[in-house]
Design goal:
6-stranded mixed β-sheet; 1 helix; about 50% strand
Length: about 900
């Protein structure tokens, strides 16, 4: 681009000055300020001369003249301020002028508000207490512009700001004694505040105030305890002190006597009804005191009528004097006076005053039967308070009286009737009756009429007591008595008592029935006659045949009774005839209960018959074979026909022997004895190992036992069994028996004897039997165990049953021991059953084939448990005690 500059010549121009440009930034027109407030004006001036400082800006008021003048800064900003604007509406001007005198002016109208005047304040009340509400009284605050003045309050409690609900007051609920309260009041017209004013005060305390004062009880008696109760309040919470004293107003005058304290004990000696005990109370604290008084009146109490007595009070009849007496007391100890009145109340209800005296004389004129006589008593105290009471008695009937009594006859026998006669009268003319009571030797009898006919004894005393009564009362009673003379005794029956058949050696007794109507003790004399001859006389009532009579003789007894005064008539009994005496029963026995087929049967007379008549006795033997009389031949051993030859008997036969004894007049039978013919086959099956094999050669009937000459041992072939629904028995023992050794011997013996228990033909087997494991004893119903001199016998150990409870049921029987045939030793042992080491039962076994002991119980048995029989032998010689055990152990498996 090509610029072409052309320079030419122009004519000269004249320079011209313009006034500054002025703009007011703040404040706005008609802005308002408070008097004394700093007012600031900001303006912007634009002019060429600003840089050179050739511009000045001024602020003036129509009221206060020039206020401020300044030179703007280089930017044209100028700030004008003043605190000297007087109150009122100002028309101010902002003037900007340059150095050449050119200027510009802008108006700025402002309002300056004057502060209201401070009020005059005070806190009322002037001397407040804790019950007062504090209020502020403020007056005299005015606003120059006439604007309303508003007062603002600031409270301080002990110099701490406090804001109340009502700004102009403090409620009493916030004040306490000793607090300092200050209030500051500020007056404002809404724009400006006057100088604050302050007022202060201090809360003072109050003296206590009496709230309540009373005396209890309110209606006291002269012996009550009075309690004066005062209730005061101190709003400051200060401690309150009380002082009490009492004075009494009596008959309208305050008495000088002062009683100190809250309570006052009244006594009838000092205080009377109508007196007014007055309680004076002073209450005080550090702020002051108050006082009050109150009184109560002592009430009069009624006298107490304690008793009213009439003497006599029963059996009152005409002719007696009645005395009415009373006792009374007054709780107030006043003097009492009494008055009496007697009244007569008749059955028809009519009442009559009889007397005003405490005594009353009765006569038929003022008292009749069934009248009521009433005594009324009036008791009055000094103040006229009265109480009344009464008591009464009934005029009763006059009972009839017995004047005489007698008995007829005067000397009666035990059988004669006795009459009681009585004379009586009734003074009232009423009908009356007589009642009779009879006494025999002082004992009351049942007879109630005037004639006594009951049995009595001689020398006894009969007494009649009669009493008389009318329809209302019973009168007196009187008695009379007589003595009974003796009567002889009487024998009613006499007989001779004997055994069922009177025989030679019988003892005869006289049985007599005799009586004595007088119930005297009797002595009876007996005379005994045999075939007409007197053989005994005197007091004996029995006669012995051993001394006085024989068979075929006649006996009579004659008896006479004596009561000590009289004897009865003699009486004879009927005669009796003495009869024959039969011989005694002979006692017999067979040689054995089990007789072998090669033995004779012998019937022995162990005890012969005897005859009291000393007659000759003969015997006759009767045999029975298998229940039928034996008609075959017999043999004679000591008596004719007392044996049966062995050739006539067979195995299994049963033979019975019977003997008859006779004295030629009568016969008597013996006891019977029975024997069975046996061959003794082996009854048990054995499965025996080794040393016991020769048991098969035994031909007798065996049970288990021991000989006292052998070493003691234990042999218990007693299996444990279980019971199923099919009633099937199964052996479940781990060892069928245990054979224990004693005395250090390894060889032991087993003794067997016949099962009949006779222990004859003893056989002994020897061998070593320790813990033999294959012994089976089938159907072991009876096992006999030798006790010997040891006491520990162990049963079996077994496997555990499915149900641990097993049932034990044993019978232990003493069966004796022996050392030679026919010699028996009676057992006397203690037997115990142990489960492990615990004793289950303990029994004493005594006797021989009798007194069985039962052991029946349930035991919980575990595997390897041990049941043990413990026998405590009492053998003191070479004999052996035998114990028989039967029974079972049943366990479920």
């Amino acid at each position: 681009m090509l610029w072409i500059f052309q320079i030419g010549c122009f004519p000269s121009m004249e320079e011209r000055n313009f006034p500054p440009h002025l703009e007011i930034i703040s404040p706005n027109q008609e802005s308002a300020y408070n008097e004394g407030e700093l007012i600031t004006v900001e303006a912007i001036v634009s002019d060429e001369l600003l840089i050179s400082g050739g511009i000045s800006v001024s602020w003036s008021s129509n009221l206060n003249g020039l206020l401020h003048e300044r030179i703007p800064n280089s930017d044209g900003l100028v700030v004008l301020s003043s605190v000297n604007l007087s109150p009122g509406q100002h028309q101010t001007t902002i003037r900007a002028e340059d150095a050449e005198g050119l200027s510009v002016e802008l108006p700025l109208d402002l309002f300056v508000n004057a502060s209201p005047s401070p009020p005059q304040i005070s806190i009322v009340p002037e001397n407040p207490s804790t019950r007062d509400t504090l209020s502020v009284q403020a007056v005299g605050s005015l606003d120059p512009e006439g604007s309303p003045v508003v007062l603002e309050y600031e409270w301080f409690q002990n110099n701490t700001p406090f804001t109340p609900e009502n700004p102009a007051e403090i409620s009493s609920e916030h004040t306490q004694k000793g607090q300092s309260w200050m209030v500051r009041v500020l007056a404002t017209d809404g724009m400006a505040y006057a100088e604050p004013v302050v007022a202060s005060t201090t809360i003072s305390g109050l003296k206590p105030q009496m709230n309540d004062l009373e005396i209890s009880p309110q209606n006291p008696s002269s012996d009550d305890l009075l309690l004066c109760t005062a209730s005061a309040e101190d709003v400051d919470g200060d401690p309150i002190s009380y002082e009490y004293h009492w004075q009494v107003v009596s008959n309208g005058t305050l008495q000088d006597v002062i009683y100190e304290g809250e309570s006052l004990q009244l006594t009838p000696e000092e205080f009377k009804p109508g007196d007014k005990p007055t309680c004076f109370v002073r209450v005080f604290d550090e702020d002051g005191e108050g006082s009050a008084s109150t009184f109560v009146g002592i009430e009069n109490r009624s006298p107490v009528l304690e008793t009213i007595l009439i003497h006599p009070n029963t059996g009152v009849r005409p002719g007696e004097q009645l005395i009415c007496s009373s006792t009374a007391s007054d709780p107030d100890q006043q003097t009492l006076s009494s008055a009496y009145e007697w009244y007569r109340e008749r059955p028809d209800g009519t009442t009559t005053l009889l007397s005003l005296n405490p005594t009353l004389e009765l006569s038929t004129d003022n008292a009749n039967k069934n009248d009521i006589l009433r005594c009324v008593v009036h008791i009055q105290d000094e103040l006229g308070m009265e109480i009344s009471g009464q008591s009464e008695v009934l005029v009763v009937n006059t009972p009839p009286q017995i004047t005489a009594i007698g008995m007829n006859p005067q000397s009666p026998s035990a059988q004669e009737p006795i009459e009681c006669t009585v004379l009586a009268e009734d003074l009232d003319g009423d009908s009356f009756s007589v009642q009779y009571s009879w006494f025999l030797d002082g004992v009351l009898q049942t007879e109630s009429s005037n004639v006594f006919s009951q049995p009595r004894l001689s020398s006894s005393t009969v007494e009649c007591t009669a009493s008389v009564s009318d329809a209302e009362d019973t009168g007196n009673s009187m008695s009379a008595s007589v003595s009974i003379v003796n009567s002889p005794p009487v024998i009613h029956s006499l007989s001779i008592t004997t055994p069922q058949t009177p025989t030679t050696n019988a003892l005869l007794s006289a049985e007599i029935q005799a009586s004595d109507i007088d119930d005297d003790s009797l002595i009876v004399y007996f005379d005994w006659y045999v075939d007409g001859l007197l053989v005994k006389t005197g007091l004996g009532a029995t006669l012995s045949g051993e001394d006085h009579f024989d068979k075929n003789e006649e006996v009579i007894v004659v008896a006479t009774a004596d009561d000590g005064l009289n004897s009865s008539l003699s009486v004879a009994s009927d005669p009796i005839l003495i009869e024959n005496t039969p011989p005694t029963q002979p006692e017999i026995s067979l040689s054995s209960q089990f007789i072998l087929e090669e033995e004779d049967i012998v019937c022995s007379i162990d005890v012969d018959s005897t005859d009291e008549d000393e007659d000759e006795i003969t015997y006759q033997f009767q045999w029975y074979a298998n229940g039928a009389p034996w008609t075959g031949s017999t043999s004679s051993t000591t008596q004719t026909g007392d044996s049966i030859d062995s050739a006539l008997i067979s195995v299994g036969d049963e033979w019975r022997c019977h003997v008859t004894a006779t004295d030629a007049t009568e016969t008597v039978d013996s006891n019977e004895d029975t024997a069975t013919i046996v061959s003794c086959p082996v009854q048990y099956e054995y499965s025996i190992i080794e040393d016991l094999a020769d048991l098969e050669n035994i031909h007798d009937c065996w049970s288990v036992g021991s000989n006292s000459t052998l070493d003691p041992y234990t042999f218990v072939p007693f299996p444990t069994v279980w019971h199923s629904e099919e009633d099937y028995f199964q052996y479940k023992a781990s060892s069928y028996f245990i054979l224990n050794k004693y005395n250090g011997s390894s060889t032991n013996g087993i003794m067997v004897s016949p099962l009949d228990g006779s222990h004859e033909t003893v056989h002994t087997l020897y061998g070593y039997f320790s813990l033999a494991s294959n012994w089976v004893l089938h159907n072991p119903d009876v096992v006999k165990i030798n006790v010997g001199n040891q006491n520990n016998y162990t049963f079996l150990q077994w496997a555990a049953p499915t149900d641990n409870t097993c049932t034990l049921d044993f019978t232990v029987l003493p069966v004796s021991g022996f050392y030679q045939p026919y010699f028996y030793h009676y057992v006397n042992n203690t037997v115990s059953l142990y489960h492990n080491e615990t004793e289950l039962e303990n029994h004493l076994v005594q006797g021989y084939n009798n007194n069985p002991v039962n052991i029946a119980l349930d035991v919980d048995i575990m595997a390897d448990d041990i049941l043990t029989f413990v026998f405590h032998p009492n053998t003191s010689d070479s004999n052996v005690d035998w114990i028989q055990i039967t029974g079972s152990i049943r366990c479920p498996y």
